[in-house]
Request: fold
Amino acid sequence: MNYFKVLLPFLLLLVSSQVQAQTEEEKIIKVINGYIVGTSHNYADSLKSAFLPGANMFLDHKDKPLFVMKIEEYADRVAKQEAGKFNGRVTNILSIDRFEGIATAKLEVIIPSLDRRFIDLLLLKKLEDGWKIISKTAASEPSNKQPRKALIVVSNVTEYKGSDLPAGNSFSELVIAYDVYQKAGYHVDFISPHGGTIPIVYVNSSDSLQLHYLYDADFMYAIKHTKKPSQINPDNYDIVQYTGGSAPIFDIPENEAIQQIAMHIYEKNKGVIAAVCHGTAGIVNLKTKDGKYLVAGKNVNGVPDEYESRDLPHYKYYPFIIEHTLTKRGGNFKHSSMKEAHMEVDGRLVTGQNFLSSEEVSKKSVEISKRVERLDD
Reply:
């Protein structure tokens, strides 16, 4: 039997369904973005076009357990505001779940003027004229969140290039950075060279923080649906952090699109660039607008070469040695024992040598980001 001929139709069907699923999700996102733009910039028509006419909105109200409003009434309220003027409402899509012609979406809405964080749940259905929101419900809580964002850079690589050795992103470093930024009031996005799913390694389910995020639907959705560089507006971010693991050294350092985003955040936004452990591989090729390496003349940190496992097979597949390359680029590399945390701070560049440094690197990045913002104000 020719197994390839038997398998080929199945593979084509699989690829077709994946493409179709991606296309349908893009259509759903387009509808949701109509709702987001309509509510944040007072575009009543954009808001109404996202909903099925007559759709009910079950809204949050301090005096009523069930406050129902038709989409047309809600749009009329929006129409009374100045169209096109940003009203301070910041919305982020947390997750989308689709099955055939129905979908649900979970959105986070930050309204700083009210000191509240809202969660919107949308129910969507695919109709003859496309996807429509057929119902919305919402709830809110007091919140310190502000319209600040942090971007975490991750890798799509699953193997050490040139080998069959598995590679991935450090789960502990991802969750530590994510947790710190979330608690500090930042929305967190993940960016990878190709977007989509990423491999993770070094998962310790006995660690309470890691266990928490293993079962956190919003976090797991985010790392399953990382953003491509083309999906990122760098104007929106205050911090960009490179996390480590065995994969980032292979596809992050040479990615020019991610380099441009990082330097935009650093130079135009006066934001922070942070990196931890093998994630520091991602900063070795970053250059300022005058053509100099970012690390030149700066105190930097990262995984020291003397603590690499040189006798293990994976070491020979590294495309470069992080410590040597940072030094070659003009960085003043400092480190301590790998049994302890070590962080170097030089202006708005924050680097740490291992996963133990992740928390203080992220917290320091928040501190610097907020301090710079106050000075600019």
In short: The chain has two domains: 3-142, 148-376.
